[in-house]
Amino acid sequence: MTVLAVTEHRRGELRDPSFEVVTAGRELADALGTDLHLAVIGGDVEGFADRLNREGVDAIHTVAEGEEFNHDVYTQAVTAMAEAHDPDAVLMANTVNGLDYAPAVAGALDRPLVTDAVAFDADGTLEVTREQYGGKVETTVEVDADRFALTIRPAEWPAAEGTGDAEIAEFDFDLDESAVRSDVKGFEEVGAGDVDISEADVLVSIGRGIEEEDNLPLVEALADALGATLSSSRPIVDNGWLPKNRQVGQSGKVVTPDVYIAIGISGAVQHVAGMKGSDTIIAVNTDPNAPIMDIADYAIVDDLFDVVPELIEEFGGEAP
Amino acid sequence: MKILVTVKEVAQVDDEFEIDGLDVDERYLEYDLNEWDDYAVEEAVQLSEANDDVEVVTVTVGPERSEETVRMALAKGADRALRVWDDTLAGAEFLDVSTKAELLAAVVEEEDPDLVLSGVQADDDSFGATGVALAERVGFEWAAVVNDLDHDADANVSNVRRELEGGVEELTEVEGPAVLTIQTGINEPRYASLRGIRQAQRKPLDVLGLDDLGLDDSVVESPVALTSMYEPESEGDAVVWEGSAEETAGELATFLREKGVVEG
Ligand SMILES: Cc1cc2nc3c(=O)[nH]c(=O)nc-3n(C[C@H](O)[C@H](O)[C@H](O)COP(=O)(O)OP(=O)(O)OC[C@H]3O[C@@H](n4cnc5c(N)ncnc54)[C@H](O)[C@@H]3O)c2cc1C
């Protein structure tokens, strides 16, 4: 009986969620009254294992197979580990790579899967708190099984700290090469450009509330009047209205300005991941229940097409 | 070549709403094609336009109401549609990841596609797991969060870009038959033309029940159950400026001046 938490790394670095699954894994192991084991797969497994040997970790299993994440390798390795140690829970992070292997692990082990947990309670049966409808409502999902798989939302649990005294051992495992049918060729950085929004002190950020490309000059005028930099949520970039280097969020840029003005942005988790470190967050949104309201310091619940022209005027600019 | 696209009709919640039991009250829901699936449909249709003899089939698991959404996909160029539903599915309280994967796997076995495209996630429950779970079940290769696809139809090999965190993309080669989960921004989904909408009415849309798929009722049995839904307690303590647009803009302006963001 154990909890098996799977860690992640990229280009030689452990990723933050690796330390978060340790915290969540310990929490779950305590609730189940069991041990916490970690899986470290690929890359510098010894160096990674040393760094992951934090308080509360009982054992670390390493598999030195490949340099980078490959979902076929991860799926096989985690499945084999779970078969060998029969953990109650296989815990993974709901990262982009989590999306790429966690469902396969759950499937291979024939275990129920609940993804993107923001909290859980394991007194008796597992009860997972999730969000639905873009964060407008919360749900609880019960898993009536003593073997399950779970992914946790990044940045919801703090990184594990302290030094542990886990047993670190290589996990003996034969990879079935013929079942590795995906081949990671490399990486590329995208979204560089003339403006670095992560350096800006003040960001005027626009979301789908702007409706049409033709309306963009309105927020550009506001940014000008404020001497601010213009950024956006993903749909604006998807539509090709602004270049990729303006996108704030999980797959865009992480920004930490003094002031972040979110206009017509709902506050989806992947957007919030990129801007929640802003010093002061101001939301302009017609929807009083938009999730952005939960992290905003100041808010205007009104139509941006009414508010923004007034603001531009306040600062001596001219609305287009 | 045959491309199967999994599509889902998702509900969006109005600004003001009430919860009734385990869901938002029907009155406050509006239905639409899942955003991610719209990009998946477009990618399939573009592949069919770029290659000879490509059939694009959509499959959805959903009630009759979802046919409207499915017809949209047909109007955009899919050739035919399958809808999986029957009384047993209608009576099930919650279709978990493994149930959906099993239903879709039965369709894959029936249709034998060369490529399956699905959205990264559904905008309503955001499990983000169906595509990869399906791939595992049918023994297909897969790639999740694909924002660029270069498909070699002869070799059935896909060169994809997977959009990772922080503006990094992974370049991966995937052997077919494969399931790819499609990220928004991969293309520009077209609008359905009036002609397309008319043609869609005549395209086949078949409804399949568990019997047709060779499955029995046990497929809906699941240890995963939705047990409650509620409005999250606002953790925020946002100061909400009230009044007319002129007044609230004035408040914000004063704040920005006091903060020293703008002078004067
Ligand atoms: C793997 C993955 C990675 C992702 N990465 C990112 C990322 O990096 N960045 C990102 O932003 N998203 C990302 N997303 C997408 C994210 O899930 C959301 O789809 C997106 O953030 C929504 O953008 P939005 O808030 O602009 O649009 P919506 O969610 O549609 O919100 C629009 C808002 O505007 C408001 N509004 C509408 N009209 C008006 C008006 N006239 N006046 C005022 N308010 C109005 C509405 O009330 C609503 O709240 C990612 C998704 C996935 C699956």
Automatic annotation (TrEMBL), chain A:
Ranges for domain Electron transfer flavoprotein alpha/beta-subunit N-terminal: 3-184
Annotated InterPro entries: DHS-like_NAD/FAD-binding_dom, ETF_a/b_N, ETF_a/FixB, ETF_alpha_N, ETF_asu_C, Rossmann-like_a/b/a_fold
Protein name: Electron transfer flavoprotein subunit alpha/FixB family protein
Gene3D superfamilies cross-referenced by the UniProt entry: HUPs, TPP-binding domain
Coiled coil: none
Family: Belongs to the ETF alpha-subunit/FixB family.
UniProtKB/TrEMBL annotation, chain B:
Residue stretches spanning the membrane: none
Domain of life (superkingdom): Archaea
Pfam hit, one: ETF
Domain Electron transfer flavoprotein alpha/beta-subunit N-terminal: 21-217
Family annotation (InterPro entries): ETF_a/b_N (IPR014730), ETF_b (IPR012255), ETF_beta_N (IPR033948), Rossmann-like_a/b/a_fold (IPR014729)
Keywords recorded for this protein, A-Z: Electron transport, Transport
Family indicated by similarity: Belongs to the ETF beta-subunit/FixA family.
Full protein name: Electron transfer flavoprotein subunit beta/FixA family protein
